[in-house]
């Protein structure tokens, strides 16, 4: 069996995880590879894979939109518009902002404004502040017709203005004010789903997961196929240890958006917490085959292997994370803890020292470094580490200190 065929078979993991029995087809593989190249700003390669997917019979509005984006970012605006218009035929409004941006770059004010009007009348409407500062649309900021369009148009409702103001308050860390404003919007009778969704974001920002979950439940009740809301709720379930509920929500998200790769990370982590290690490991490997430069996902891969006692694979993943970035204390802490499990104490001590240089308030790294020091014959350093771990609230450090530092 060729290496390519083996790789294609590995991609079937996505569908197995979603409960599908059929094999992943070549067109889906090509689309996924194209998306990975698009997100990595490798637009020529992305177009090659998108065209292969189309040649194999794949034709969804998502694929056409992504092909249009690759052309747009290559400044091939006329060709991008052709793809975006195909998207509009299937899903009016979805690509209209990109059509407007393309025409703005072509200095075609009349067609830009037609597309912009479609966008402002759609469910995909962006906030007013975002559009007014859009770098592509600002190409026309001195055009008389463009100025008049914004002057006479009444494109934003009271709900839009409330959401925009709440966003500003949240970004300014004025959380109580944002909550009060959104709560007033609910009382005024505005459409409630977006208000609850945004209020949930405010509650999440201050780690009030209970109230965030209450609001998300209400928003999802009114907008059941909103993948982003389901993903937010899945994140809260995971953060609060409700791993079965998190897994259910991630699966629901991926039924709606099977090609949104970012959701597979949460899915893999939830699978692992539900005891499905093999599926979790395969799922996150497939993601990393497509996005090998994502250090954070390499870290999560390492933690999945670590938690299941597969220390060789854990070190492999954490090595990859650290090749990409050495600025995150978690990466050194995790590899140090893994070296500790394999009794390679000198390596463990070095990594844990690096972790503490980056984050000197990590009690677990102090404890682990103390254990490594103890096994390296560095009793004085070990006792110092145990003492620091105790001061930072690590209960396990007390027994180590009592036993080894009298």
- First-residue to last-residue Cα separation: 62 Å
Inertia-based shape: globular
Order of helices and strands: HHHHHHHHHHHHHHHHHHHHHHHHH
- Strand content range: under 5%
Enumerate how many helices there are, as a single number: 25
What integer value in Å does the Rg equal? 26 Å
Percent of residues in helices: over 70%
How would you describe this protein?
The protein has 406 residues and is mainly alpha-helical. Helices cover 74% and strands 0% of the residues. It contains 25 helices and no strands. α3 packs antiparallel against α4 (43-55), α14 (209-222) packs antiparallel against α15 (227-239) and α19 (295-307) runs parallel beside α21 (329-341). It is globular. It starts with a helix and ends with a helix.
Key terms for this structure?
mainly alpha, 25 helices, 74% helix, disordered N terminus
Task: Provide a compact summary of the structure.
This protein is mainly α. It has helices at 3-10, 13-17, 26-39, 43-55, 61-73, 77-90, 96-105, 109-120, 128-132, 144-152, 158-171, 175-187, 192-205, 209-222, 227-239, 243-256, 262-273, 277-290, 295-307, 311-324, 329-341, 345-358, 363-375, 379-391, 396-404. It has 25 helices and no strands.
């Amino acid at each position: 069996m060729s290496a390519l065929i083996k790789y294609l078979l590995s991609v079937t993991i996505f569908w197995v995880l979603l409960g599908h029995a059929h094999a992943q087809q070549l067109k889906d593989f090509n689309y996924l590879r194209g998306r990975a190249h698009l997100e990595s700003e490798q637009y020529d390669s992305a177009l090659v894979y998108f065209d292969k997917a189309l040649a194999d019979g794949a034709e969804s509005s998502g694929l056409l939109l992504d092909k249009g984006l690759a052309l747009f970012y290559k400044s091939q605006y006329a060709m991008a518009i052709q793809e975006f218009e195909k998207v509009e035929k299937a899903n009016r409004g979805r690509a209209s902002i990109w059509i407007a941006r393309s025409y703005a770059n072509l200095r075609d004010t009349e067609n830009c404004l037609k597309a912009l009007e479609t966008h402002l009348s759609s469910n995909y409407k962006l906030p007013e502040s975002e559009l007014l500062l859009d770098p592509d649309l600002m190409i026309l900021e001195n055009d008389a017709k463009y100025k008049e369009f914004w002057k006479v148009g009444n494109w934003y409702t009271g709900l839009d203005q409330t959401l925009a103001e709440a966003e500003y308050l949240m970004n300014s860390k004025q959380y109580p004010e944002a909550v009060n404003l959104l709560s007033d919007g609910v009382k005024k009778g505005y459409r409630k789903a977006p208000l609850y969704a945004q209020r949930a974001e405010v509650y999440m920002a201050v780690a009030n997961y209970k109230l965030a979950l209450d609001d998300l439940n209400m928003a999802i009740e009114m907008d059941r196929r909103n993948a982003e809301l389901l993903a937010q709720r899945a994140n809260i379930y995971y953060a609060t240890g409700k791993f079965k509920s998190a897994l259910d929500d991630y699966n629901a998200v991926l039924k709606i958006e099977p090609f949104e790769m970012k959701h597979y990370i949460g899915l893999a982590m939830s699978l692992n917490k539900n005891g499905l290690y093999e599926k979790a490991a395969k799922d996150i490997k497939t993601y990393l085959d497509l996005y090998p430069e994502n250090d954070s996902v390499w870290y999560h891969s390492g933690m999945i292997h670590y938690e299941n006692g597969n220390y060789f694979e854990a070190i492999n993943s954490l090595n990859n994370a650290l090749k990409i970035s050495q600025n995150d204390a978690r990466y050194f802490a995790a590899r140090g803890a893994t070296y500790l499990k394999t009794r390679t104490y000198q390596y463990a001590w070095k990594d844990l020292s690096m972790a503490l240089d980056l984050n000197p308030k990590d009690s677990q790294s102090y404890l682990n470094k103390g254990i490594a020091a103890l096994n390296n014959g560095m009793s004085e350093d070990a006792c110092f580490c145990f003492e620091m771990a105790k001061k930072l609230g690590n209960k396990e450090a007390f027994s180590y200190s009592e036993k080894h530092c009298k």
